[in-house]
Amino acid sequence: MRKAQRHAVVGTLAAVALVAPACSNNEQPADDTATTTTAEQETSAEQSPSPTRDPNSGVTTVDDAFGPGCPDLPQDDEPGSLNAMSEQPVATAVESNPLLTQLTAAINAVPNLADTLNNSQALTVFAPADSAFEQLGEDQLNQLLANPTELEPLLSYHVVGERFDAEELSEAGSVATLQGSHVSVEGSGEDMTVGGAQVLCGNFPTANATVFVVDQVLQPEEGAAPSGESSAPAESEAPGAEEPGGGEPVEEDGEMPVPTN
């Protein structure tokens, strides 16, 4: 009887000894899986985009509008008034305003630009008044309207791919435009200027943009490098290198980017 019990105990211990390694082997892949999952989660977190601006940032109301030119806009609910434009996407709003007829002509001269502006979710637009385009002279204006590839980057310098109100612009000091380079902002309120242009009527909303009517057609600073690009000369432009045509830079035509925010 004791021998039988002894054999039973020995058999049980042997079984435990055999099962223990098996359990250990079975548990290891689970640990590896957990480690792999954790690593994947950390990698995914690192690759996820940074938080975008609050969708309500830069959104204003008609009561936020300011500037000496605001009384010159149509009043009440007339087409082109602050109330009417606040309900329309920005290109449609500009088209309805009798003080922005030259800007409307410029936008319509670039294929699909009006649709691009209207379909964008959040923009800041610096809109030159008709008097601003008149300063260019009739010949230059007609030349621009007849040349969309030259006109498009000029117009895109008047558009920011995010929505800013006047206070945010003043705090920023400069903002990146869809043309690629920055435009400076100085002063605040009635004394605000954008790229050296006086704000005639600013900080008013359209359905998808905050708009600032300005008294000049904004011009990128000569020699300014677009955002994210180096202003250093390319290898072929290095001192001592010869270029055809006396080394004059060749301007590349580019399409206006479509904002996604």
UniProtKB/TrEMBL annotation:
Pfam family, one: Fasciclin
Biased composition, class Low complexity, residue ranges: 31-48, 220-242
Polar residues: compositionally biased ranges: 49-60
Keywords in alphabetical order: Signal
Signal sequence segment: 1-22
Entries under InterPro entries matching the protein: Adhesion/Biosynth-related (IPR050904), FAS1_dom_sf (IPR036378), FAS1_domain (IPR000782)
Region Disordered: start-end pairs: 23-89, 220-261
Domain FAS1: 87-218
Coiled coil: none
Family annotation (PANTHER family): FI19380P1, PERIOSTIN-RELATED
Protein name per UniProt: Uncaracterized surface protein containing fasciclin (FAS1) repeats
